[in-house]
Amino acid sequence: MTEKKLPVGWEEKKLGEYLYLKNGYAFKRSAYIEKSNNSVPIIRISDINGNTASDELAIHTTEKVEGFELQKGDLLIAMSGATTGKLGIYIGNTPAYQNQRVGNLKLKNEGCEEFRNHLMFYLQDEVRKLGYGNAQPNISGKMLEDLDIVLPPLPEQQKLAQKFTELLSMVDHMKQKLERIPLLLKTYRQAVLVKAVSGELSSKWREENKISRTSWKNTKVEDISTVTPKKDKISDDLTVSFSSMHLMSENINQHLNFEKKLWNEVKKGFSFFKNGDVLLAKITPCFENGKSAVARNLINGIGTGSTEFMVFRPNSELLSDFLYLHFNTDKFRQEGSMNMTGSVGHRRVPKEFVLNWEIELPPREEQKFIVQQVEELLNFAEKLEQQAQQALAKVNLLKQAILAKGFRGELMME
């Protein structure tokens, strides 16, 4: 219990003095049916999402069961399984039934349900620790009733609940804004790529260097690169880089990761590539998810990897990074996905599709400028995303900090 002096009227109590846990009904599986006009939803643990509980995806029954009906606003808790301690305020339709191992946290006397909800969300981590102290995660009403709490008088509960709602709604608003940032930055990155490959990003550079847009030429990937280049003659005991599919990032502007292998171990049955080659995953869902890379800093300049990599070696007109930009545009990914062949789960982008992909190719100097500008802009986006993630982590802690301050009696003093 707390050693700090409590506000006047606050009392140290056991949770069981304030509320009780009502257990659910053990429906037989034979009672489960699909939703119909005469059926009633059974709310199971899977219908609790950690914030609310709903009948949206619930199984139904036509069995009549008295004493286990739910009401809107009931606070439900998962009492066993991997999500033991998960809470949800019921917002679904009524009538609805409470299933076994779903607890319903009911006030013993007159009280503020909103205060109860905030209190239980505050105690959630402690409840989970109780549940995971056993071989099979579970909690009982007795475990919950033994928890220590401090309880203000009812008028103070109502004021505090109102204060919690006000502050936490502000926190949720901040959280929603921060959670939208990755999607906004994804759109931003694609806009950068579109401007890069269309020439818009380098329009000022051309103007300053007195270079015409007509210096760009229409070509295809097959005309400016070699696909699946031949292997060099290499000593069996030479250490080289090896990259399997899981070592290739889905995020643009990320380096290819690799392991060390002896050439003798990986010279057969894998894709061969060298520094400067452009790698493209051809199998679903890796292709759609954006797996591609420019091979750099390979051990002894040589690498091998998944046979699901297509390897392109640019000729003297083409920079590897400029081809890489094309491979990461939504247009390329979407059209490639529509042209996939093969059975479900093993669909691949045909080599012919990539080789026939049309590219507007600027002079090498302009390619260098474009690649440099894209790198700077993408690095800027990466820093913004990291800052947003750090801010989101702090906001996630803020909710618990507000609740902790409130239940220490400090929030209403301000």
TrEMBL record:
Keywords: Coiled coil, DNA-binding, Restriction system. GO terms for biological process: DNA restriction-modification system. Residues 371-401 form a coiled coil. Residues 7-181, 216-392 form the Type I restriction modification DNA specificity domain. The keyword Repeat does not apply. Transmembrane segments: none annotated. It holds the Pfam family Methylase_S. GO terms for molecular function: DNA binding. Belongs to the type-I restriction system S methylase family. This is EcoKI restriction-modification system protein HsdS. It comes from Gallibacterium anatis (strain UMN179).
